[in-house]
Specification:
The complex is a heterodimer of chains A (275) and B (75). Chain A is mainly alpha-helical and 275 residues long. Helices cover 81% and strands 0% of the residues of chain A. Chain A has a domain of 150 residues. Classes of the chains: A mainly alpha (275), B mainly alpha (75). Chains A and B meet through helix 1, helix 3, helix 4, helix 5 and helix 6 of A and helix 1, helix 2, helix 3 and helix 4 of B.
Chain lengths: 275, 75
């Protein structure tokens, strides 16, 4: 019975993630694509500006052509119109479903263990915690970058640091949760939550200071307004994704668990007959 | 003490707090589905960027915009 409850929660979590992904895709298409296109235009303008210089010094070797081809490599195979529609949808929806599944499993662990919260409230808290630890905290240290900003030579290091930051932030979040629960009997729920939250912020700040800086220094001349617009769009996509997930999964989880919660409340008398 | 009494008085009558699901029931799902989800996230977030399972750049190009906008380092 418990295993089937976990399975229904998982299926509903992935469904809620799909719905959340659709909303996030809409936001990504409307507010995210303009700055991405803008950044690609900057990238192409830069490549076009460099090409003649290369051509001048390596006229015999066709240096200009090579530079243009290298810049055009980004576009190979997949057209911009496919990238900005079906490609974007694939990325955002897979992200939503996968993280929806993981979040529903985190919810299954958290349910009834984090305090006196209904399934719906637990779902909202899970979504808020996931947004904070999986996206917001890593974003504050290693913010999202549009095309043309990153140096391809450092992609390995940047990817490692980014995933490390996510892992660290999730583990710190779990540690803060456990510490908060341990402190609750002594300090009371309110003060224990504040103490655990403060601990999370302090340790995260120390991690920010200790971890290497983002090598992805923004290229000189990249428009600051465009960068801001891109990062704000990235933040909006994730905020919408997790807000919709929390709301939709909350409703579904409440429905799934309502009979069970009611039976628990009744004193578990008639539950076995029903199951 | 006082806080415990207050919070119990506020939430107890209205909220049916569900019993925790046994960890044993969640773990197998967490392991297998968690693994599948992480693989899916890898393909959205990192494949053909820092490391490649498949040769070429098609996967990278297909999820390119999503990868940038979801916050992953892309290239």
């Amino acid at each position: 019975m418990h295993a089937s409850t976990v399975r229904s929660l998982l299926v509903r979590g992935m469904l809620a993630g799909l719905v959340a992904g659709l909303f996030a895709f809409a936001v990504a298409y409307v507010v995210g694509e303009p700055p991405v296109s803008g950044a690609i235009a900057v990238e192409e303008a830069k490549a076009a500006g460099e090409a003649p210089a290369g051509h001048g010094s390596h006229a015999d070797h066709g240096g200009g052509t090579v530079a243009v081809e290298a810049a055009g490599e980004e576009e190979e195979g997949v057209s911009r119109s496919a990238q900005s529609t079906f490609g974007l949808a694939t990325g955002v929806l897979v992200y939503g479903v996968a993280l929806g599944g993981i979040a529903s499993l985190a919810f299954s662990f958290a349910l009834g263990r984090v305090g006196r919260f209904s399934p719906r409230a637990t779902a909202a808290l899970t979504a808020a915690a996931a947004f904070t630890t999986v996206y917001l905290v890593p974003f504050l240290k290693y913010p999202a970058t549009p095309p043309a900003v990153g140096n391809p030579d450092t992609i390995g290091k940047r990817t490692t640091l980014f995933f490390l930051m996510i892992l660290l932030s999730v583990l710190l979040g779990i540690a803060a949760l456990i510490a908060g629960r341990r402190l609750a009997p002594r300090l009371g729920n309110w003060n224990a939550t504040l103490a655990a939250g403060a601990g999370f912020v302090v340790v995260t700040a120390v991690a920010f200071a200790v971890l290497p800086d983002n090598e992805d220094a923004v290229a000189t001349g990249f428009p600051a307004g465009l960068l801001w617009e891109f990062r704000l769009a990235s933040l909006a996509i994730q905020a919408v994704l997790w807000a919709v997930f929390g709301i939709v999964f909350g409703v579904l989880a409440q429905k799934t668990l309502a009979p069970r919660a009611a039976a628990d409340q009744e004193g578990r008398l008639g539950a076995p007959a029903a199951g | 003490m006082a806080e415990a009494v207050v919070s119990a008085a506020v939430s107890a009558p209205s909220v049916a707090v569900p019993a925790p699901l046994p960890v044993r029931a969640v773990l197998p799902w967490a392991f297998f589905v968690g693994l599948l989800a992480l693989i899916a996230l890898y393909f959205v977030g990192a494949e053909q960027g820092a490391t490649s399972v498949f040769a070429g750049t098609d996967v990278h190009e297909w999820v390119h915009d999503g990868r940038h906008l979801l916050g992953f380092p892309c290239h």
